[in-house]
Amino acid sequence: MMSTLNRRSLMLGASAAAVALSAGAASAQQSLNMAEVLAAANPLLPDLVYGPADAKVTIIEYASTTCSHCARFHNEVWPELKAKYVETGKVRFVFRNFVLNPLDMAASMLSYCGPAERRGAFIEFLFKQQEKWAFTNTPLDALLTAARQAGFTQESFNACLQRRDLYDALNVTKDKAADGFKVNSTPTLIINGQVHRGALTLPELDKILQPLVGA
User: What's the whole-model pTM score?
Assistant: First the structure.
């Protein structure tokens, strides 16, 4: 949607990325039906899923690619969480985009336009390189530079940002999360139905997960 995701809106998105709907402090505020949350996945936007389906614990993360707290979680906490709980079969981890601004929309759309098997790596790359593309005066150019490293050309980059189906689907996913599950900040972690807002540390996650996994 180049008419929507133009240079002006992307610049506004970059300036908003540092503050809009991001949460640094962790808190648990409500309980949800986990089956309903899992069923809310959009067929056009398949979840990123790590870990076995029969794990004792399922974590659903709603995150924004432009959220600095999300980047810190993925860069510092996720590798340890994955090694300790996901790769050992104790936890299934589900990642979903929660779009905060036009720049986040563009990055999220791009993550679905590349090869499906490389989407997880692309998301993690965006988090690692976030300061280089999300907080600049020329965010569209910076995002293109990042996307080129994932195999995009100028043509495929532009074509992706014109996809109305992805644009609409990401907005629907956000609306469902906000209206149905009261997601109002990123990152939000839903752990076996319990909602935790903010970038939890590994020790904080240990306190939540160990009683659930029996460790």
Answer: 0.89
